[in-house]
Every structure is written in structure tokens, then in C-alpha cells.
Amino acid sequence: MAAAKLVLAMLVVAVGVAAGEGGGKLRQGYYEQSCPRAEQIVKHYVERHVPHAPSVAATLIRTHFHDCFVRGCDASVLLNATTGGGEAEKDATPNLTLRGFAFLDRVKALVEQECPGVVSCADILALASRDAVGVIGGPFWRVPTGRRDGRVSIKQEALDQIPAPTMNFTDLLTSFRAKGLDVADLVWLSGAHTIGISHCNSFTERLYNFTGRGGPGDADPSLDAEYAANLRRTKCTTPTDNTTIVEMDPGSFLTFDTSYYRGLLKRRGLFQSDAALITDTAARADVESVAKGPSEVFFQVFARSMVRMGMIEVKTGGEGEIRRHCAVVNS
Ligand code: HEM
Questions:
Q1: N or C: which end of the chain has fewer CB within 10 A?
Q2: Which positions are annotated as binding substrate (predicted)?
């Protein structure tokens, strides 16, 4: 019943998404005339390579998220530091663990070969993320296109605007609302943590030093004690470990499914920001309903929130440019 209500709510809101917001100028099939094979080229490349390297899916979708939260979805996260030495978004701590840049460069090169100067890096990132999620068993959604690439990328802006794993519910919601997203988007988009990995240092204070007192007795009480002990014993064995990686959704970190939400309810979300989702009544109700329901329900709401995220502060028309190489602005 809760699942049915969820789908209904989703359909109602979907009308709102199509009707407007910042991304109103994007449209499906934007490249139909100018580069008819663009979407197909991206899809083929992803379908050929992601099965051999499924962890790429996680990094692509995370890159898309980090892109959209800073200056909108304009591929600013893909830009290298300027030759003048100004550090770019890429150089900010949360982006140092992104890994898909070379992959995206290869996709972009193939698309450029077909239609030089037509398809933006921002669109390629949105399309490749969608296609990669599909390859690992996740949903398909139609990506409205027509984004243009930004010409500015500033490290400090990424530090200020990408939400931190230590955030509580209020701060997370403030961060998402600042981008036009709501509680439901926060809950569904966090579901991307059903895939991928984290480095120990993204959450070690929850294991060793939650209040600042320090030691194994100072773990975050909102994290399942048995899970925390296991992580301390087998994975993040010292408080300073910054190289070991941990599956965010143990047992199915390469599969797009609803087990992340079941983990949250067992108090096994890795970050405080994951645990925060069950501290708010409305968010917790959403978590409970998808945790129980068939994965199709999660897939639909996730897809809808991805479309909304992909519309954040996009550049269209005469704004920005179509970059020739995703790591540098056109001269
Ligand atoms: C709600 C706020 C969020 C916070 C605080 C957060 C934080 C993090 C952190 C700290 C990591 C681990 C980085 C590392 O140590 O290597 C991570 C990984 C990841 N995040 Fe999030 N995240 C959030 C939302 C999202 C959203 C909205 C998406 C996508 C829609 C996403 C997708 C991912 C994925 C797929 C990974 C795994 C990356 C990999 O395997 O390389 N996250 N996130």
C-alpha cells in the first residue's frame, strides 16, 4: 500500500518536473538533428566497458552529483586547474576520490569524432551515468539534454557546496534545498550509496573518535555496535587509515538494489549523512517503504530524482560553451 502511494506521488510530481524549473530548457532528444548518434555512442561505449569495470558506474554517478551541486550541471567538475595555478573543483577533497575522468575523455573523443563541437561534456556525463547505472541492474530514465559546459571551476566552491558525510539531517536538507531539491530527493538520491566504495577516512571518527574523547569506546552510538567493531577489526584498523576501502552496501556494492535502505534500518549506513535519513519522520517513512517494496518502486523514484538533479542550474542557449576536451575550456 505504501509502495502504491509512493508511485502515485511520484507520478503527480513528475508532471511538475516536466513543466518547468531551472532545467525547463532542456529536452529529450536535443541532439536528434545535430548529432543523431550521440546518445547511442555513449551507450555503446558504456555497455562495452562497464561490465568489465562495474565500479566505474559508481564514480560516474557520483561525479554527476558533484558536478550538479557546484555551478549547476555544467561539467565544471571535469575541468583541470588553470595554467595560472587557480585550483579547480577537481582539487577539492570530496573530488579527490573521483575516478572516471579518463573514461569520460574517451567517450567524449568518440562523440567529437562523430560531431565535433556539438555535444557538451555536461550532457555526456549525465548520459553516461544513466547508462552505467543501467548496466549494473539499475533503472533506465530519459535524460533531457541541451546542457552547455561552464568555463569556471573553483576549488573553494566545491568545498562549500558538496555536502559532507558528517552532516546531520537539517544540514543535508539545507544543502539539497539550496539546489531546489527536497526531502524525497535527498532520500532517493542517497540510495546511490547502494553501489560503490568509501575510504575509511570518510567515516573513521564514527569508529574511533565520535565525541573527541577518542578510543574504541568513543564510537557513534547511532552506528550498529557489532558492525562498527567489525569495521575496526577487519577494515579501518587504525584511526588514521586513509587508503583502505569499504563497500558501502556490503555484499551487493556492485548491484543497484534496495539493500542500502535495509542497511539504514539496521543502523549500518556508513556515514552520519546516511544514518541521518532515519532521524527525520518523513524521510524514515520513505526509507521504510522502499526497503520493503519491490525494487521497481525505488527505481522509479530514483530515476525521477536523478532527472531533477540533472536540471540544477543548467546552462543553455548562449550560455557557456561546448567544450572540445572535457578537462579544459576552449581557448
Ligand atoms: C546526501 C549527501 C551525500 C554525502 C554526504 C555523500 C558522501 C559520500 C562520501 C563521503 C563517499 C565516499 C568517498 C570516499 O571515501 O571514497 C561517497 C561515495 C559515493 N557517493 Fe555519495 N554522498 C551523498 C550523496 C550522494 C548522491 C546524491 C549520489 C548520487 C546520486 C552519491 C553517489 C555516491 C556513490 C555512487 C559513491 C561511491 C563512489 C565510488 O565507488 O567511487 N552520493 N559519498
A1: C
A2: 163
| pLDDT tens per residue across span 24-60 | 789 999 999 999 999 999 999 999 999 999 999 999 9
Ligand 1 neighbourhood includes 197 CB (under 6 angstroms) = yes
Distance, CA of 202 to CA of 302 (rounded, Å): 24
Instruction: Judge contact between 67 and 310, C-beta under 8 A.
Output: no
Set 44, 49, 66, 325: catalytic member: 66
Domain map (residue ranges) of the chain: 37-196+248-310
Q: How many CA atoms lie within 13 A of 197 on its CB side?
A: 15
Compute the distance between CA of residue 202 and CA of residue 89 in angstroms, rounded to an integer: 18
The 10s digit of each residue's pLDDT in 59-90 is: 999 999 999 999 999 999 999 998 677 899 99
Q: Report the predicted TM-score, pTM, of the whole model to 2 decimal places.
A: 0.94
pLDDT tens, 123-132?
A: 999 999 999 9
- Between the CA of 116 and the centroid of ligand 1 the distance, in Å, is 33
Q: Which atom of ligand 1 is nearest to the CA of 274?
A: 1
Closest Cα partner for 39 from 115, 103, 98? 115
For ligand 1, is residue 193 a contact (CB within 6 Å)? yes
Cα Rg of the chain, angstroms: 20
**Closest atom of ligand 1 to CA, residue 196:** 40
Q: Is 172 in the pocket of ligand 1 (CB under 6 A)?
A: yes
CATH architecture of the domain with residue range 37-196+248-310:
Orthogonal Bundle (1.10)
Contact (CB, 8 A) for 222 and 265: no
